[in-house]
Design the sequence.
């Protein structure tokens, strides 16, 4: 099963996160299938590769709660066919 989750990057006290598609059995810093976005909570910046995210969601990938909140703010689920995420 594939999940969309955050992968921590950056230095101490200055964490930034990549949004990645990754196997559920992998560790947080494990090998990801594809990088699909970027999130900086300090500057409150977000970059999303929307076509890649939609591809993984249509194939059955499950976003974590935090990633789901980020995607809702960016209104990504409105581009997806009606499902349980709306």
Sequence:
């Amino acid at each position: 099963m594939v999940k969309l989750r955050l992968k921590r990057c950056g230095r101490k006290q200055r964490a930034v996160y990549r949004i990645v598609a990754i196997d559920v059995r992998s560790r947080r810093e494990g090998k990801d299938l594809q990088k699909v976005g970027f999130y900086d909570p300090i500057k409150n910046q977000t970059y999303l590769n929307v076509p890649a995210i939609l591809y993984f969601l249509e194939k059955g990938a499950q976003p974590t709660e935090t990633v789901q909140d980020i995607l809702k703010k960016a209104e990504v689920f409105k581009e997806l066919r009606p499902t349980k995420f709306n």
